[in-house]
Write a structure and sequence with these properties.
- By secondary structure, the chain is mostly beta strands.
- 10% of the residues lie in helices and 40% in strands.
- The strands form two sheets. Strands 1, 3, 4, 6, 10, 11, 12 and 14 form an eight-stranded antiparallel β-sheet that branches.
- It is globular and about 40 Å long.
């Protein structure tokens, strides 16, 4: 009797742990349909004369190219402990670009150079017109060390858009397991137009926020899991 009761208690305990673990699989799922940005999920990092606003069920970044303007998670997620998968969609303006950061802090670069990037973390940069502007690649993964400039960009070789590089509608999937970072961007209206890039970085940064910014464009359908 006691043995059966012990097994039952053990089963309930293990099942409870498993259920709790699964329930935290999706940390954030936000389609931005609310009237305001959910402060239980997000914090806004804005410089002067920039803003992040909800518009038509999407999040609009009114951001001059060289200004600090980020949407960051409230929670920190260390991908070495909890491997990350980040998904979403973005609509870009002409010559638009997007940054997604993992392992990030939420202050501006302190190392000299530009101030519109965060001070540390892994930066996934997608710039649709990079090749046309003479600054390839279209997609790059970079490591930004705190208080340093320039940063080390040797963790990826870069990837270019194989099809229409003027496309404005993209969905993305980004993973980071604390070692390997992989980013895939696919044109929503033409799924054959897709590019994927991976890089390796084992740096354990002091802070581990996930952050997004878009230069004059819209972010939507974000999940962080």
């Amino acid at each position: 009797m006691y043995r059966r009761l012990s097994y039952l208690i053990l089963f309930i305990f293990v099942f409870g742990l498993t259920t709790c673990s699964v329930s935290r699989g999706v940390l954030i799922e936000d389609y931005f349909e609310a009237d305001t940005v959910d402060i239980n999920k997000w914090q806004l990092i804005n410089g002067p004369n920039v803003s992040i606003v909800l518009s038509d069920g999407q999040l609009y970044f009114d951001r001059p190219a060289l200004q600090l303007n980020y949407l960051a998670t409230i929670e920190q997620i260390d991908p070495a402990k909890y491997p990350l998968t980040i998904t979403g969609s973005v609509t870009l303006a002409n010559n638009g670009d997007m940054d997604v950061w993992t392992r990030a802090n939420i202050i501006a670069n302190t190392g000299g150079g530009v101030s519109h990037v965060l001070d540390s973390g892994i930066r996934i940069n997608f710039w649709q017109d990079a090749v046309d502007s003479g600054y390839p690649p279209n997609l790059d993964i970079l490591e930004k060390k705190p208080g340093a400039w320039p940063w080390d960009s040797e963790i990826s070789d870069g990837a270019n858009i194989p099809g229409d590089d003027e496309a404005i509608d993209w969905e993305f999937v980004i993973t980071d397991d604390g070692t390997t970072i992989t980013a895939t961007f696919t044109q929503i209206s033409d799924s054959s137009n897709t590019l994927t890039l991976s890089g390796v970085c084992t740096t354990d940064f002091d802070t581990d926020y996930v952050a997004f910014t878009v230069t004059d464009g819209y972010l939507n359908e974000v999940t962080v899991q």
